[in-house]
Amino acid sequence: MTLTSNRLLCLNITMSEWTEVKISVNAEDVDKAGDIAMMVVPYGIYIEDYRDLEQQAWDIAHIDLIDEELLKKDRSKAFVHVYISPEENPHEAVAFLRERYTAEGIENEIDTIACRNEDWENNWKQYFHSIPVGEKLLIHPKWEDEVDAGDRVVLNIEPGLAFGSGTHETTRLCLAALEKHINKNTEVLDIGCGSGILSIASLLLGAKRAVGVDIDALAVKTAIENGEDNGFTEPEFTVYKGSLTDKVSGKFDVVVANIVADIIIMFTKDVAHFLKEGGVFITSGIIDTREQEVLDALKRYGFVVTARYTEKGWVCLQASLSEKAGK
C-alpha cells in the first residue's frame, strides 16, 4: 500500500503546466499551515503527516504491516502540497505563503516543481493583463505594452517575489474600498504591504502620504521599487521592514491590512493607536469561515464595522472606532 495522509482534501486536477508547491513545516504546525495553504488554492492541496502512521494504516486498510520506507519517515515534519494552475499566478502564491507563514511564526521550507513547465516563474505572466479595479484604477503589469486607460489612473506593478499583483480577490477588495476614502489630505498606513500595491494606489488616487511596513525584506525592496516606478519616493512614500509597533509612529486617516485573519486579530488591539479621529480601518485576507473571529476582535477593541465587501469567499471589512472607544 502507499499511505500519504488520511486528510486528502482534493487532488482531482490536470497536471499539465501546473506547479506543485511542497511546504515543509514542523508537524505540530501542519493544521495551521494547511489552513493558510487553502487560502491560496481551496481546490487542490493534500497533507502528509506521519505522526499517527500506525493508526492511519489500521483505520484505512485494517492492517498493521507498513512499508519500511514509510516507517523511516521523519515524524517531526509534515508536508503540505499545493497545486497551482499557471493562470492563478504560482509566483505570487508562493510569495503569499512565505509572507503568511513568517507572520504566523511557522518555520517552513518551500520547494516548487513545475509540472511539464520549466519556466514557472514567468509562465503566469502571459495570463496577467491590465485589469480595472473599482471605479478609478487600472492595474498594469510592467511587461505589458501601454494600454488606453480612459479615465482610470494607471498603477504599474511588478510583484516580483512579493504578494500583491492585483489579481488576488483580497487585493482587489481592498483597492475598491480604499478609493472611497482618499483625498489630497489623506495619510495611509499599509500593514503587511507586500509589493506596495495598496500604498501606491492610495498615492495615485491623490493621498498626501503613504507608509508601508512588512516583515519581509524582499517585500520592502519590491515595494520601494514599485513606488519609484510610479513616481513615489520618500517622504511621500516610506517603507519600513519590521512589525507594526516597533517601526511605525504617528496617526493616519486610513489603516489598511491585507493579511490573514490571525494576524488581523493580533494587530487589531494596536490599530486604534495609529488612527486619527474619524479614521477608517480597512482589512482583508479574511476567508469567510474566519470572518466572525475578526468581527469579534474588532468589537472587542472598540471598532464598529461600517461596510463589508465580498468576492469568491473572501471578505473585506471597513471599520471605524466607536464614539465610546474614542473617548
What do you see in this structure?
The protein is an alpha/beta fold and 327 residues long. The chain has 12 helices and 14 strands. The protein has helices spanning 30-40, 53-61, 68-71, 90-104, 120-123, 169-178, 197-204, 217-229, 244-247, 261-271, 291-300, 323-326; strands at residues 19-26, 45-49, 77-84, 108-114, 131-133, 137-141, 153-157, 187-191, 209-214, 237-241, 252-258, 275-287, 303-311, 314-321. A 7-stranded mixed β-sheet has the order 10-9-8-11-12-14-13, with helices on both faces. It has a 4-stranded antiparallel β-sheet with strand order 2-3-1-4, covered by helices on one side. The protein is globular, with a radius of gyration of 21 Å. It starts with 18 loop residues before the first strand and ends with a helix. 43% of the residues are buried.
Labels describing this entry:
alpha/beta; four-stranded antiparallel beta sheet; 12 helices; Rossmann fold; 14 strands; 327 residues; Alpha-Beta Plaits; globular; 2 domains; disordered N terminus
